[in-house]
Structures are given as structure tokens and as C-alpha cells.
Amino acid sequence: MKNLSEYLTEAERNHGHMCPGQVLGVRMAMLGCRLIGIEEPKVGKRLIAFVEIDRCAADAINTVTGCRLGKRTLKFRDFGKLAATFLNTETNEAVRVVAVESSRELARQLFSHLSAKKEQQLEAYKTLPDEDLFRWQRVRMHLPDADKPGHPLNRVMCDECGEGINDHREVLRDGQMLCRACAGERYYQPIN
Ligand SMILES: [Zn+2]
Ligand SMILES: [Zn+2]
Questions:
Q1: 3-state DSSP assignment of residue 74
Q2: For site-directed labelling of 159, which of 34, 69, 86, 184 has its Cα 20 to 30 A away?
Q3: Quick one: which H or E segment has residue 107?
Q4: Helix/strand/coil (H, E, C) string of 119-144?
Q5: Domains of the chain by start residue, with CATH
Q6: Mind listing the pLDDT tens digit for each residue in 168-188?
């Protein structure tokens, strides 16, 4: 694993700017990896990260872990929380790490000599111990075969729209094999 400042340089490049979310995300991922015995996060595909937010910190978690949607090693769980769960698929060890609310107030108190809130948070999140920034808990994770990295398990065609569906995402209804869109989960409205 690299050190915090090396990861922050990389995170800034990857994300496009430096922000408190980069610091929290980098530290969250470093902590998570350490807790499940992963010293070299980017080696192989044994690390899976379940990210609970689609904001700044998510990019930082990607920077440290190398977990990506396209490798099936990054899973998005849209809970709107600054939290992530890290799973070592070799040992099945997993830990969920969440940023604590009190760190904002702590940043304001301890770094009141810095005028901007952003600067206060950047300094606090770089220097405070993990215990002041996060809570974490060992958890049990089940990763279904259809969610694992590797070749697609199967591929079928939707009986309604004819589009291909990988990895058992199809829905069986009244004897029909449907994609999730045709089964009612369409997130877009066709025009014309
Ligand atoms: Zn940002
Ligand atoms: Zn369909």
C-alpha cells in the first residue's frame, strides 16, 4: 500500500480536484483494506468494494482499491451514506466502514485558525486518528456467483425487446423471460 500523501496525489488526479471527500475516501479505503488483510489492493480481483454513495469519496475509494464497475469489483449500493464495505474474497473477511458525523464539528473546533471550512476539514481528515473519523464493524457478506468477476455465467434474450441480458438479471413472468426494463423497472421514457 502507498502512504496517505501518495494516494492523495493520485486521488486528486483521478477525481479532478482535491476535496475533503478525497481525504475521507482514501483513508476509509486504506483502513478497510488493512482490516481485511489486504496490503496490495490493486493486485488481482480478490477485493470487492461496496460503495454506499455516489459522491466525491467514491472516486477516492476507486483510487486506492482499483475497484471498478467494469471489473465487477466495485458495487454501488445507493444508500446515500459516506460508507463502504470491503470484502476479501479469498478469506471472506469483510468490514463496513462509515464516516462519523462528529468529525465535521471536530474539524471546526480543532482547526478554527483556518478560515475556510474546506481547509479545516482537509487538515482534520488528514491528521485525526481513524477512531475520530470512522466507525467500523466486521460483517458477513455473501457474493452470489452471478455478481462475481469473471466471464458472464449466462446470457439470454428478452422475450419482449430482444435485448441481451447477462448474469441472470432476467425476470421470469407468466412464462416469459423479461429484462428488468420490460418487467417494469424502466428508468427512462422512450420518445416516439
Ligand atoms: Zn470532490
Ligand atoms: Zn426487454
A1: strand
A2: 69
A3: helix 102-110
A4: HHHHHHHHHCCHHHHEEEEECCCCCC
A5: 4-146 (3.30.1330.130), 151-185 (3.30.60)
A6: 999 999 999 999 999 999 999
145 CA distance to ligand 2 centroid (A)? 23
pTM for the predicted model, two decimal places? 0.94
From ligand 1's centre to the CA of 17, what distance in Å? 6
Ligand nearest the Cα atom of residue 25? 1
Give the three-state DSSP class for 95. Answer: strand
Residues whose CB falls within 8 Å of the CB of residue 185, separated by 6 or more in sequence, listed in order? none
Tens digit of pLDDT for each residue in 59-76? 999 999 999 999 999 999
Ligand nearest to the CA of 163: 2
Q: Which amino acid is residue 88, in one-letter code?
A: N
The partner residues of 57 in beta bridges, in order of sequence, read none
